[in-house]
Design brief:
- This protein is of the alpha+beta class.
- The chain has helices at residues 7-18, 37-49, 75-82, 99-107, 120-128, 132-145, 236-249, 274-277, 329-339; strands spanning 26-32, 53-59, 86-89, 111-114, 152-156, 162-166, 182-185, 189-191, 200-209, 213-225, 227-232, 255-258, 260-262, 284-289, 303-306, 310-313, 316-320, 323-324.
- Strands 5, 6, 9, 10, 11, 12, 14, 15, 16, 17 and 18 form an 11-stranded antiparallel β-sheet that branches. Strands 2-1-3-4-7 form a 5-stranded parallel β-sheet, sandwiched between helices. Strands 8-13 form a two-stranded antiparallel ribbon.
- Strand 1, helix 2 (37-49) and strand 2 form a beta-alpha-beta unit.
- Helix 1 crosses helix 2 (37-49), helix 1 packs across helix 5 and helix 6 runs antiparallel to helix 9 (329-339).
- The chain is globular and about 55 Å long.
- The termini are close together.
């Protein structure tokens, strides 16, 4: 693993190697007033170097992500993203799941990247310091290992998480390159397909994202038995997180809608960037609310982060405190090569 620590290299990896930006394509960067403008400028310059037609639109910070953002997305911003071939979204809360985002996805014209709250330093680690070929080779083996529909999975963490569920097919594919219109996320988080109605146990969160991202001094504890039964914890963060879950569901507390496993070899937990912290080795971005296929569901949901998890499949230890130690030999070999 060669650490390059070069902004220019990271920009080229994103635009050229991952998003495959071509000459004359329309690249639109959406940002808010809290976004890192150094990164906005670097992305604009990188797009210009690739002969793309690049535009940045900066709007006030959105009140919440997804559908909750609709009222605050300006007409000018809607017009710009409607014309995009490549849309890089640096707003946080983000626009994924909003009305304009749904329209772009329906038209199947643009390649959308949810970059979110990544600042220049996080961005450089996520795209500049990792070998994407090695990462996606390891992700492919991870997906195979966790693709055993109906197998029993258990997740624990040092803070006290202990929950089980049956594996199902992940709902979101993550290809090596963004060659076709659709939604893309930062590489580094492997999806764990779960039959959400079978999730049962205790989930202990070390960080939460409701309308802001917070690294917690005292954990938030979520009890689940198919549906979310309770959310407890001390302090304002627990109160705000529970309210965010209720807003996302309209009534009641909904269910768990996604699970992941961080596999990014150079992601760091800094408490400053949700999109980096959740991708650190063994961290799990847990989505709360309603699944996207139910009325009122979608991307308007809060997330929590389980830190340094261990994962079993049918009683075989696959991930131990964030490190892949079991499963097929090929998975262990490629995971080791990724972090070497």
């Amino acid at each position: 693993m060669k650490i390059r620590n070069s902004v220019a290299h990271a920009v080229e990896v994103l635009l050229g190697d991952f998003l495959c930006v071509g000459g004359q394509e329309r690249v639109v960067i959406t940002a808010d007033m809290t976004s890192d403008m150094r990164l906005v400028q670097a992305l604009l310059e990188g797009a210009y170097c690739r002969a793309a037609e690049a535009t940045a639109v900066v709007i006030p910070k959105l009140p919440s992500q997804g559908a909750g953002a609709d009222v605050a997305i300006t007409a000018a911003c809607r017009g710009a993203i409607g014309a995009a071939d490549v849309w890089i979204d640096m707003t946080f809360p983000y626009m994924a799941g909003s009305g304009p985002h749904d329209a772009v996805m329906h038209e199947k014209k643009a390649r959308y990247l949810l970059l979110g709250d990544a600042g220049l330093e996080s961005f450089t680690r996520l795209f500049g310091d990792a070998d994407l070929d090695l990462y996606f080779a390891a992700q492919a083996e991870f997906d195979k290992t966790f693709g055993r529909k109906g197998a029993r999975c258990r997740i624990t963490c040092p803070r006290g998480s202990d929950f089980t569920f049956e594996l199902s097919k992940p709902i979101f594919e993550k290809p090596r390159r963004a060659l076709n219109p659709g939604m893309y996320t930062i590489p580094g988080a492997c999806s764990i397909g779960a039959d959400t109605k079978t999730i049962k146990g205790r989930i202990v969160l070390g960080a939460v994202f409701h309308q802001v991202y917070e690294l917690l001094q005292q954990p938030v504890v979520v009890e689940v038995d198919g549906a979310i039964k309770s959310i407890t914890g001390a302090g304002a963060a627990a109160i705000k997180f529970e309210r965010a879950v209720r807003r996302a569901t309209g009534s009641g507390q909904g269910m768990i809608i996604h699970l992941t496993n961080g596999l990014h070899p150079t992601a760091q937990v800094t408490g400053k960037c949700f999109n980096e912290d959740m991708r650190a080795l063994g961290n799990n971005a847990v989505g709360f609310g309603l699944p996207w296929w139910e009325p009122g569901g979608g991307e308007n949901h809060p997330d929590g982060v389980v830190m340094g998890q261990s994962v079993w499949i049918d009683n075989e230890l696959i991930v131990e405190n964030g490190r892949i130690v079991g499963g097929p030999e090929e998975l262990v070999r490629k995971a080791d090569a990724l972090v070497a």
